[in-house]
Structures are given as structure tokens and as C-alpha cells.
Amino acid sequence: MGAMERRVADLWFTEYQTPNLRLGLRIKDVLLNKQSPYQHILVVDTDQYGKVLVLDGAIQLTETDEFCYHEMMAHLVLCAHPCPERVLVIGGGDGGVVREAIKHEAVKKVTLVDIDEDVINTSRTFFPNVSCALEDERVEIKPMDALLYVKEHFNEFDIVIIDSTDPVDFASGLFEPEFYKDVHKALKDDGLMIAQTESPFAEPKLLSEAFKGLRSVFENVYLAWGVVPTYPTGFWTYSVGSKSIDPRIQRRSAPKGTKYYSDDMHPLAFKLPPFVREIIDGDNLKGAKAD
Fold this sequence. Notes:
alpha/beta, Spermidine Synthase, Chain: A, domain 2, Rossmann fold, 2 domains, 8-stranded mixed β-sheet, 5-stranded antiparallel β-sheet, 13 strands, disordered C terminus
């Protein structure tokens, strides 16, 4: 090393998105590194995407692109429902979906159920622009097991949003037909539910099985898609279960200030590339709606 050269720390966070796929981000600072009763929580500051929340090694959100995911998860169903007064958010302890839900004047109450209170507190501390709605008077927070909570409620919610982590460990039950049955019972007759169902490139089998599970429970199921740059492959899917109404029809305009979701985007999100339709319609089960 020359006399004028300096060694510089070169720190990287690497997410192993599949056994054969990795995403790396250069780290400016490690802000939090802890183990909660349920999962490992990491918050890092990066040059490319700002602050990043990582749970059990998987990126949950970044300051730069979180709106892509949170807006789609909330507004695809909230704008499709004629009057979404009661909203249940399962998971989503960071508060991003809640932030989007309360932008709708029709919403009277949002109940957030996340088993890990440490995630909620972490978002309050490090992601105030994401968690800002958690203090709203219309928001009720229940730090408990969503599988148990949903079983105790019947015909109560207009919208259920399942903002789950990857289907491993304590979150695996949120992708099972038995859970979908409980969600179906918790919804009103014109209720809608939405769940993130991963990438068709990285997890085609998971997408197929989750969609099949929903079709075994709901009268009609639809798939939408969007872009989330830091999620595996950047191509993400959202499965919508409906008791009666067609979520492809936008009944209420997008709230002001959205950066990804829009009135134009709503119908387009349900237009699927042929390879995605093939993944979910391989068995042509009754009630399937591809686009």
C-alpha cells in the first residue's frame, strides 16, 4: 500500500433471495441489530436505497421504494370497494399499509395485528415516514397472533390486507387455506382481501399454491402485479379474494399524492403476462379470474 493510500471499510448487506440469487447493498451504517422473540431485526443505512428494514435476512422495506408495495397492497382493494369502513391489516407492523389505508375518508377504523411488537417500535424509531399513521385515532394496534385474532371475528371487516413476511416459521400459517377460510368468515358479504404472493420468477410454486388455496375458499380470485425493485426479481404479485364484487373495477379514485398506484394503473395491474397466467391457471380451477 502506498504512503498516501488509506484503507476504507467496505461493508455490504447481502440478501439471499433464492439459493441462486443474491441482492447486495453497500452499507453506510448499521442502525439496529437485534433479536426479537420472533425474528432477527436489522436496520441499515445504504447509499442506494436509504434506510432498509430487514427481518430474518429478508428486506421488508427501503425508504426509496416502499411506496411501490404499500400503495398497491392498500389501494387495489380500498379503491375497488364502494365503502371500506372497517379495515384489518395482518402483519405490516412497519405501518406502511396503515398509512395508505387512512388516506381514504370512508375508512372509520383500521385494526393492525402483528405478532412482533418490536417491529412496530423499530419502524416508529427509524421509519417515521412509514409508521406515521400508527398514532392516528382511527388506528387500533393488536400485537398478537393474527391466526388467533381472525378466528374470533365474524362478518366484521370490509377489507382484509395480509401484509405477511415470507411463508416461514410463524408466518407460514398465513399462506394456508385454513387461514383463508377464517379471513373469508371475518369479511362482510361484499368484502375483499388481498395478500402478497411473491415473485413468479423467484417463487412460481409458492404463487401457484397460494392462489390455488385462495380459489378453494373464495368465490372469485384475481391476480394483480407490480414492481418493487428490492424484492426478489422486482416483479411482485398480489392475490385478491372476493366474495361478490369485481376488484378490477375501480369504484373510488386514488387518494391524492400517490407515487405508484393511480387510476390508470388500477385496471392495468390485473392484466397478466401469459407466463404468469399459466402459473396460476394450470389446473383451471372453478372461480379463477386471471384478468
